[in-house]
Amino acid sequence: MMFPFADTESDDITEEEYVPKEYGIDFKTGQLSGKIVEGVDALMVWCWIALHTPRYRYYIYSDEYGQEFEDLIGKQYSEGYTNSELERMTEECLCVNPYIEGITDFECVKKDEKIMLSFRLITTLGEQEAEIYV
Asked: Record's superkingdom (predicted)?
């Protein structure tokens, strides 16, 4: 042993997996619920906030955080192209989170002035169905 004071027992310590925690949000109103949520529910809160934050607008967030849906507003793209761009932008927005592996079953429906995005969120902590109005 090179250093007699080195603790050899530290090799036996395993790293505990971090479970994400967030303040709960009522997804319909956007108001805080007053509860702390963990795991997949915390990731859903993170997704909701990320999908409601325009990318590059706020200095507090990195350039990788947020969505770029505003790039589609006022354009005369076909519905198919718009839907595929919304899916790409949504996945790009969400996959910066290390817990999120991807999305599947993506659908978007225009309702009045908003678009409802529905998809299955695939994470390292499990899967969750999501419906988010943007």
From this structure: Bacteria
List of residues 6+ apart from 112 with CB closer than 8 A: none
CA pair distance 59, 88, nearest whole angstrom: 24
3-class DSSP state for residue 93?
Answer: helix
Residue with tokens 């932008």: 89
Q: Read off the amino acid at residue 23.
A: Y
Domain extent listing, the chain: 18-99
Six-digit token string for 90: 């949504």
114 Cβ neighbours under 8 A, 6+ residues apart = 133, 134
pLDDT in tens, 99-113: 999 999 999 998 878
Cβ atoms within 10 Å, residue 36: 11
In which element (H, E) is residue 38 found? Answer: strand 32-38
